[in-house]
Amino acid sequence: MKEWQTSGKLPEEMIGILRMLNREPVHWKKINIDNVMDFAGHHRLFPQLHRSTEHLEPPEQWKQSIQKHVMQHTLITLQLAGETARAADFFRTNNQRLLVLKGPALAQFLYGDVSARMSSDLDMLVPLEELENAALLLQQLGYKERPYFSKKLPDWKWRHHHLTFYHQDSGVHVELHWRMHPGPGREAGFEKLWKERRYVDFGQSNIPVMGTEHLFAFLAVHGARHGWSRLRWLCDMNELLKQDIHWAKLEEILGDQKLIAGTALALCQQLFHRQLPEETASWMQSEKVMKITENTMFYLSRKVELHAEVVPEYVSKYHRKYLFSLLSVRRKLLFVSSFLYPYPEDVAILKMPKSLYFLYIPIRPLLWIWRKTKKTAVTQ
Question: CB within 8 A of 224, min separation 6: which ones?
Answer without folding.
Answer: 260, 263, 264, 326
